[in-house]
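Hi R.,

As promised on Friday, here is the backbone we talked about, encoded as structure tokens. Could you run it through your design pipeline when you get a chance and send me back a sequence?
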């Protein structure tokens, strides 16, 4: 493993080696990645598959039974993600009735305004700071330039910002992500003894 790779890439390779490799007979079905953020995201579950009934059921259970309130679900699907069916869910009979969960699906990542040299030319507007998950209307301020000019969101719809002013995303040119609210439904799941 190359030391030249970014830490997160090296760590992902280590985790894949420990618990994978992905899609192998011995790989783990689910791994929880727990970490913190400098943005005001609160309790957040990140769902990468909107078509997997088992994951939707699990997120519904965690949100309803275990997580602090509020707990948001961020839908971040990867185009190359393979949708797999769940092979088994329990050693003993368990049934989960149909359910629905509210998720925040990423629409677009928004960069900071930049000057001709590519340097950040504005900060997150104070009205947006720490307002992750709250409705953001087109006329609402999102940036404040170094000259004191307020820049509104623009567009034609209300969005829900996430990862607002996340320090780890400065280098990725992301001031915040715009999301929209969706409802995902899962069919019932039943496990029985064989």
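Update: got your reply. Pasting your designed sequence below so it's all in one thread:
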């Amino acid at each position: 493993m190359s030391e030249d790779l970014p830490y997160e890439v090296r760590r992902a390779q280590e985790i894949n080696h420990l618990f994978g490799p992905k899609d192998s007979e011995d790989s783990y079905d689910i791994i929880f990645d727990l970490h913190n953020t400098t943005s005001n995201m609160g309790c957040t579950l990140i769902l990468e598959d909107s078509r997997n009934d088992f994951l939707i059921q699990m997120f519904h259970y965690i949100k309803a039974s275990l997580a602090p309130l509020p707990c948001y679900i961020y839908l971040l699907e990867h185009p190359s993600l393979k949708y797999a069916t769940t092979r088994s869910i329990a050693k003993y009979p368990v049934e989960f009735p149909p359910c629905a969960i509210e998720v925040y699906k990423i629409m677009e990542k928004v960069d900071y305004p930049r000057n001709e040299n590519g340097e950040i030319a504005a900060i997150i507007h104070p009205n947006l700071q720490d307002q992750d998950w709250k409705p953001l209307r087109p006329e609402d301020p999102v940036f404040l330039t170094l000259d004191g000019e307020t820049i509104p969101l623009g567009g034609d719809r209300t969005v829900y910002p996430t990862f607002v002013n996340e320090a780890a995303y400065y280098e990725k040119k992301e001031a915040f992500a715009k999301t929209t609210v969706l409802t995902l439904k899962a069919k019932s799941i039943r496990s029985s003894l064989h």
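One thing I noticed while checking it: The first strand starts at residue 43 and ends at 47.

Thanks again,
M.
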